[in-house]
Specification:
The complex is a heterodimer. Chain A is built from nine helices and 13 strands. By secondary structure, chain A is α/β, with parallel strands linked by helices. In chain A, the strands form four sheets. Chain A has a five-stranded mixed beta sheet with strand order 1-7-6-4-5, sandwiched between helices. Chain B is α+β, with helices and mostly antiparallel strands. Chain B has one domain: START domain (Alpha-D-Glucose-1,6-Bisphosphate, Chain A, domain 4), CATH 3.30.530. Helix content of chain B is 27%, strand content 25%. Chain B contains seven helices and seven strands, in the order H-H-E-H-H-E-E-E-E-E-H-E-H-H. Classes of the chains: A alpha/beta, B alpha+beta.
Chain lengths: 339, 218
């Protein structure tokens, strides 16, 4: 079977870091949840500029790949997969706009709308499937997250504890038919029983696109937080362990575990469950907040750049989505990118 | 049960109640305390509690447990109980170690359906190894027939330090407390034995208990 590699990753963070005080110092800021581990405010995060689109961020994130692999390589990708956490437009995904910007004409283009915070893993699986079963040779997978500086800075939502956690950013992966930095195995699970548990609340009961004055927010309740905590605690270690078991390596052999970055509690719990020391679980939470779907590629890129991921490391990318409706893990023998 | 006036609690540090710090902060605190996994020592280091559902009516489970000679059936290693000479106190062998005597007195409460085994190795003067068991009607707590059995041991200081090493049958005889870290596993094996015996007899309409092998001291 054709071996597929995660050949490189790159990322982009918009603007200057926005300090926690942007939220904690906001008039009427809700302090009752400030101490919540699920809503513990990261010191910094980035916000998209008002006129910055998902395609803009992806275009910027791809630049290092252009520099390292050449414009023709990026322009020539056969597969383009794009996940936009907050689509800029209804109806239209960002994918074709990204293709236009890159000058690419991919045979395969999918705007992925599922798998949320773990969609990088799912897109890696999709890319590997296409690359191993068709003539396609290269793929670009993109995660853009632009909700922090838009949705969560609305005048009312900005007061809520949930607003201070997200950050914006974009991460991209370059996937090729190659044995250099091989994707060893993946485990992905869609869990329909948890579909619909993550809700968007609109206080006046309108549909989100209908006119009105209430502001869209995430529908968190104490009970939902408890349920999602239990699911996330279980799901991510499960999919990581499943991949490790098939590979015949104990989780303790993971060189770098790169997860989505929902909050400090999950990061602690996953590391404990897999018995990994903190230095082998690189994170970006304090600098970037919760990057949603972009967390995995951005954090991987930062970990590679900082040397936390070394050449030859077993890298496991893992996460879960929404209120638990998807969980995935991918193992890569990392020889990516920079050489 | 009446609510204590809050002034009675004002001087007590460390309380977390819905009034203070409030519902959200309470939830937040509980989230912080919730991990994905817990080290064995943290869960079973000081106390060892296990529990099981047994498909046998609670009155029969209680009646079986309160008769101490049944320990010879469902425990891994307690055998050959006989009256010690002191009323209510039995002495048997714990075959976990050779030549080791175990003394045992049963303290049972039929209303609460609690059965406590007060035991000790080597001597019957101070019974400090105490196995606390309780039978709960599963109809109440699980809405299903049968019984829930809970079983707790507390780590008495003697587990870590044999107060009477001179009573050991030989100087190199290992001490019962050396096995503390296996209590979760060992007690789970024994609970499974208890479940298997009671469910088999109940399912097949057999007498639940058996007569003691030796005479009872009245």
């Amino acid at each position: 079977m054709t071996t597929v590699s995660l050949t490189d990753v790159a990322s982009y963070l918009p603007g200057e870091p926005v300090p926690a005080e942007f939220y904690t110092g906001y008039p009427g800021a809700e302090d009752k949840l400030r101490d919540s581990p699920m809503f513990k405010v990261p010191p910094a995060r980035h916000h998209v500029a008002p006129d910055e689109s998902n395609a803009d961020m992806i275009e910027r994130a791809v630049q290092p790949l252009v520099e390292r692999h050449g414009r023709d390589a990026v322009r020539g990708v056969d597969v383009l997969l794009v996940h936009s956490q907050l689509p800029d437009l209804p109806f239209v995904g960002a994918g074709t706009e990204v293709a236009r910007r890159l000058g690419a004409n991919p045979e395969w283009l999918v705007d992925v709308a599922n798998a949320g915070c773990a969609s990088f893993v799912y897109m890696l699986k999709l890319a590997r499937q296409i690359l191993t079963t068709t003539d396609a040779r290269t793929a670009l997978i993109c995660n853009a997250q632009s909700a922090a500086g838009q949705w969560f800075t609305q005048s009312e939502v900005r007061r809520l504890a949930q607003a201070a956690i997200p950050g914006d950013g974009c991460g991209v992966g370059y996937v090729t038919t190659s044995a250099k930095s091989p994707v060893l195995d993946l485990e992905t699970r869609h869990l329909g029983q948890y579909a619909g548990d993550m809700t968007v609340a609109v206080d006046d009961g309108r549909k989100y696109w209908e006119p009105g004055t209430s502001q869209l927010r995430i529908g968190f309740t104490d009970a939902s937080v408890a349920k999602v905590l239990a699911r996330g605690n279980r799901l991510v270690p499960e999919v990581v362990s499943a991949v490790c078991e098939r590979l015949g390596v104990p989780p303790g052999d993971i060189g770098a575990l790169v997860t989505n970055q929902p909050n400090r509690t999950f990061l602690r719990n996953w590391r404990e469950a897999l018995q990994l020391p903190a230095e082998r679980h690189p994170d970006t939470f304090d600098r970037c907040g919760n990057l949603f779907g972009a967390a995995i590629p951005v954090t991987l890129d930062h970990a590679v750049r900082s040397g936390q991921v070394a050449d030859g490391d077993l890298v496991v990318l893992a996460g879960f989505a929404h209120a638990g409706d998807f969980a995935g893990a991918a193992a890569v023998r990392w020889h990516g990118g920079r050489g | 049960m009446s609510e204590q006036p809050s002034s009675a609690l004002a001087d007590i540090p460390g309380l977390l109640r819905i009034e203070d710090p409030g519902r959200e902060a309470l939830t937040a605190h509980c989230v912080e305390l919730t991990h994905a996994v817990y080290p064995h020592d943290q869960v079973y280091g000081r106390y060892c509690t296990i529990h099981e559902h047994i498909d046998c009516p609670p009155e029969q489970v209680y009646d079986y447990l309160r008769q101490g000679h049944h320990l010879e059936e469902w425990t891994c290693s307690l055998r050959d109980f006989a009256p010690s000479g002191t009323p209510g106190l039995w002495v048997g062998r714990d075959r976990l170690e050779d030549d080791t005597e175990i003394y045992c007195r049963v303290s049972a409460n039929p209303e609460a359906m609690t059965v406590d085994y007060h035991c000790s190795w080597d001597q019957g003067e101070k019974l400090w190894m105490i196995y606390l068991m309780r039978v709960v009607p599963a109809s109440l707590v699980l809405d299903r027939p049968g019984s829930v059995v809970t079983w707790t041991n507390c780590r008495h200081p003697y587990y870590d330090d044999n107060p009477h090493p001179g009573l050991a049958p030989r100087p190199d005889r290992p001490w019962v407390g050396d096995y503390w870290d296996l209590f979760y596993a060992g007690h789970t094996v024994e609970m499974n034995n208890l479940k298997a015996i009671l469910e088999h007899r109940h399912r097949n309409g057999l007498p639940i208990g058996v007569p003691p092998a030796r005479a009872v001291t009245r």
